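FAQ

Q: What does a record look like?
A: Structure on top, sequence underneath. For example:
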């Protein structure tokens, strides 16, 4: 990457303190209109039920966006958030380049979490493909579309390891495992940024939320995080480091605190670790309003104090709180914030702008390019591939699936026809009309089907159908940010629908739409077939039919544990053993009213064929452990198996997890074929931190498990 430091310093030498502070300000357009309260309060009124969605939409129809052009002309804005159309971006960019004193271009950020206009599966779903090449490919699609709409930076990937299904934002990451989150995030960084950040179809990746946001107490969004240093470094930090190593040019600190110090003002996190230890020289951007919220945290006495703490800690850019533009000039003039600290923050902003090529080409797109790049056939094809690979077959009793091509189907549940629900959370560029529902896909495919949204005419439909499909789960609003749930079971209405369908005596296939693991013990026991479809994006309907009818053999595997009851949360595979592991005896670690084991474990997923494992071998090779295993397709269909390798350090200086994922490989096998899968595990990846936070090597007996999920029984022991 080209070195721009001389140009940055030359520009800084010309800038006034106010202009430097302006570069640190990221604002979003304000909504103004015919309503008597702020937009935020209006939004709360809708969510609280004080006004209806229809009333909210009516009021919003009178609203206009205020882009604060006067502040922009005065050099007080360096970046915008939430602008996703080329015409507006270029109009504002023209003001910045032609009407400000120094002509410094703007940086436009946007939440491109799982696609821009071509919405792909939610990250939790896509992670179930266990395929970094796919993750990078969908990231490229997102970058091509978003940059065509004027976006320079995306607030993604999210690599917060999430072990508590109650947390709504589990939908935005790759599940509960630190290795998978790191691999997912690194692939997305490469996809978003491409091979040259200065190219017009490359956007900077802003990884989030640094650090351990997924460990919020009780699964509540924005809540405290209290972790031992060993656990923080072993189970959470490696996923962020993987993204830094992949070249991510921005990072967003988390809303939460780390052991009592909010990440927003945590100099240990942002300077000692991120800058000094990891060598990061990119841009640090606050989460929305996070600097001002340090007052609510109770670590800053007012917004001025919060601004001071944040900048000194290493926070470059303020998203939306106006803390820097209101307070920093006085803080610099008083000497409370040295000007060289302000210079360093402004340099970080300018550096990314130089790397993006904005000084050479501030207008990187136009309306013609935007219209040509959005929702192309190629993009939809990739979205469908991702959707097909994201689904997980959880149950298939008596081989109900795949369906015969001439099967007569009865379809029930509003989610089967609601196109807008296919996108899932954080798909702000999505349009319902872009999506294809199950019902619409059946019509296009020529399937013989009857549909009932609410179960009306159930017996009549069942009588003339070969199989019944129940579309149940969560609405997209029930997962995502500010969507934590105290109860992750299916709604009473959805459970009642499935019970009624089962009572007809016809075979029932449950298709789950959800943004988190659900506690579904009743479905697992009684429904003969269950397909976990998540929220799959614009190609949901056709992709689901491809799996149901067997055009594609499902290969997805869960990246998150499905507990049997909400009260088991957090429940995850890589737990440590206690002195009394859960078992049949009374005095063991378990609940009186829930089983010890989950309904579906991490790594689990069925296929329309079967696989067998054998000939497991493990040996130490210089600075690594080499593991090999034979995998056979013992069924009658070709298929892909995700082979998973886990380890257990039997006796260590600190208690270690019962299993840890250390490798995986997706293997395609023709019916009757056998292949060898090989894993090389560096010894460094087996080390851990002792009581005094010293890194120690794994010594003694190491158990190695290989199989199709985290319960793999094939085991080999070696001594290190």
């Amino acid at each position: 990457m080209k070195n721009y430091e001389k140009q940055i310093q030359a520009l800084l030498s010309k800038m006034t303190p106010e202009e430097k502070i302006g570069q640190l300000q990221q604002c979003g357009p304000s909504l103004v209109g015919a309503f008597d309260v702020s937009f935020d309060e209006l939004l709360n009124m809708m969510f609280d039920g004080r006004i209806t969605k229809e009333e909210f939409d009516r009021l919003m129809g009178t609203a206009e966006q205020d882009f604060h052009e006067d502040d922009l002309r005065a050099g007080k804005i360096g970046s915008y958030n939430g602008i996703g159309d080329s015409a507006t971006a270029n109009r504002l960019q023209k003001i910045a380049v032609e009407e400000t004193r120094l002509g410094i271009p703007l940086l436009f950020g946007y939440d491109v979490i799982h696609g821009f206009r071509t919405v792909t599966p939610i990250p939790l779903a896509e992670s179930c493909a266990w395929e970094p090449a796919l993750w990078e490919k969908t990231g490229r699609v997102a970058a091509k579309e978003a940059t065509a709409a004027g976006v320079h930076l995306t607030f993604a990937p999210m690599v917060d390891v999430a072990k508590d299904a109650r947390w709504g934002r589990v939908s935005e990451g790759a599940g509960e495992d630190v290795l998978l989150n790191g691999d997912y995030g690194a692939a997305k960084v490469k996809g978003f940024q491409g091979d040259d950040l200065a190219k017009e179809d490359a956007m900077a990746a802003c990884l989030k939320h640094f650090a351990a946001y997924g460990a919020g107490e009780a699964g509540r969004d924005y809540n405290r995080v209290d972790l031992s240093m060993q656990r923080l470094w072993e189970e959470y930090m490696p996923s962020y480091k993987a993204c830094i190593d992949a070249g991510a040019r921005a990072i967003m600190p988390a809303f939460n605190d780390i052991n009592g110090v909010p990440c927003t003002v945590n100099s240990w996190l942002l300077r000692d670790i991120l800058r000094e230890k990891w060598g990061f020289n990119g841009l640090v951007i606050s989460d929305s309003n996070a600097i001002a919220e340090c007052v609510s945290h109770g670590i800053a006495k007012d917004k001025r104090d919060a601004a001071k703490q944040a900048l000194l800690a290493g926070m470059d850019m303020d998203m939306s709180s106006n803390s820097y533009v209101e307070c920093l000039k006085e803080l610099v003039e008083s000497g409370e914030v040295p000007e060289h600290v302000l210079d360093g923050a402004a340099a970080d902003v300018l550096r990314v702008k130089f790397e993006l090529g904005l000084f050479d080409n501030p207008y990187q797109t136009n309306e013609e390019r935007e219209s040509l790049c959005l929702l192309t056939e190629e993009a939809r094809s990739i979205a469908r591939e991702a959707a097909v690979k994201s689904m997980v077959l959880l149950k298939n009793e008596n081989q109900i699936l795949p369906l015969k091509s001439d099967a007569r189907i009865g379809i029930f549940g509003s989610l089967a026809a609601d196109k807008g629900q296919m996108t899932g959370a954080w798909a702000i560029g999505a349009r319902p009309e872009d999506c294809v529902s199950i019902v619409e896909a059946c019509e296009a495919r020529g399937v013989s089907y009857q549909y009932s949204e609410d179960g009306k005419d159930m017996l009549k439909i069942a009588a003339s159908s070969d199989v019944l499909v129940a579309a149940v789960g969560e609405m997209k609003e029930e997962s995502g940010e500010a969507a934590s749930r105290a109860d992750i079971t299916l709604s009473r209405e959805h459970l009642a629908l499935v019970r009624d369908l089962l009572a007809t005596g016809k075979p029932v296939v449950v298709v789950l739409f959800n943004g988190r693991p659900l506690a579904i013990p009743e479905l697992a026991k009684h429904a003969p077939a269950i397909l976990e479809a998540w929220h799959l994006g614009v190609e949901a309907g056709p992709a689901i039919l491809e799996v149901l009818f067997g055009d594609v053999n499902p290969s997805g595997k869960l990246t998150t544990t499905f507990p049997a009851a909400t009260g088991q949360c957090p429940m995850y595979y890589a737990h440590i053993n206690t002195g009394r592991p859960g078992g049949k005896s009374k005095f063991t670690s378990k609940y009186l009213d829930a089983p010890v084991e989950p309904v579906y474990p991490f790594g689990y997923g069925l296929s329309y064929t079967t696989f067998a494992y054998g000939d497991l071998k493990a040996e130490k090779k210089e600075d690594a452990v080499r593991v090999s295993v034979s995998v056979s397709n013992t069924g009658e269909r070709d298929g892909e198996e995700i082979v998973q390798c886990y380890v257990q350090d039997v006796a260590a200086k600190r208690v270690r997890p019962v299993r840890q994922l250390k490798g995986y490989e997706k293997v395609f096998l023709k019916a009757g074929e056998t292949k060898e899968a090989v894993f090389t595990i560096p010894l460094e990846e087996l080390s851990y931190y002792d009581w005094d936070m010293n890194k120690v090597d794994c010594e003694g007996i190491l158990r190695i498990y290989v199989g199709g999920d985290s319960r793999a029984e094939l085991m080999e022991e070696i001594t290190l």
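Q: Is there anything notable about this one?
A: The chain has 23 helices and 27 strands.
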